[in-house]
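Aim 2 progress update. The chain analyzed this quarter is reproduced below.
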Amino acid sequence: MQSTLELELPKAKKKRASKRYWKEINGTVYVRLQYKDESGKWKEKLQRIDDKRTAQTVVEKMRRELEHHGAEILKSDKMMFKDLADKYEKTKLVSAVYSNGVKVSGKRSIAPVKSALKPLVEYFGRKFIRSIRPNDLEAYKSKRLATPVETETNVKTKQKNPETGRMKNTVTKEIKTRPRQVATVNRELALMRNILNFAIQNDWLIKSPFTKSPGIVSNSAEVQRDRVLSFNEESKLLAACVDQRAHIKPLLICALDTGMRRGEMFKMRWSDVNFVTDEIYIPQTNTKTDADSDSRYNTTIKNRI
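Predicted structure tokens:
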């Protein structure tokens, strides 16, 4: 009788990460990475994980980030957007500094940027910057466009005073709403993109979610406002500049012939006008956009006034 010997092989044990990659604190498992900071001191970076078997993979990823981006990237994994926005505001949203009429740092108009920053902080404030995804940007855009703009206005009404019989003006507050413009949301998202790029420049963020959302700032969806008056309309407009409106005519001709903005015209000095070449020079300190050089307009105003 032939007998067979059956051997029972032990079951393969699941591979467990080495304890040098993780440590347990109060029942919670953390991966641990030891590294030297810029001053040469040893530091330990902990990151919470759910599975010890992934510890080595997570540590190796942290080590690659440290190698490519420095120690700042390890410190910023818990940076919230409100903290980043605060750093951006203190660094970038400062008054413009000019040298020889050319802006070298800061911004000319800070108030509009701070206004656009407020809803961003309200929405993304407590989000970690490394957790913001393209779908978060889409959700923000949808919510903002669906939220109407509310403005408070004073409404005057006349009411009869029962005691005196006289009419008196009564002022009441009234809330008016209008749809939010696409251009407003585009400016907010463009600011958000600048803030995240600021984080990348400082090694607090590796990649911006805007790289996977190329069409989210949709300038083509904005209402186009460029319109040129016809010769007929221009003639009627200038013909109305008589008597008490006569002083407006030179300003209108200047605006029509050069395309200058109101602020640029009001800040002009005689030294900016060259009557020989029929040119007006607008210093960069007076222009709306941050150009690399002064603006120059050809003008034939003196022949039309």
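The chain has nine helices and ten strands. The radius of gyration is 32 Å. These observations will guide the mutagenesis experiments scheduled for the next reporting period.
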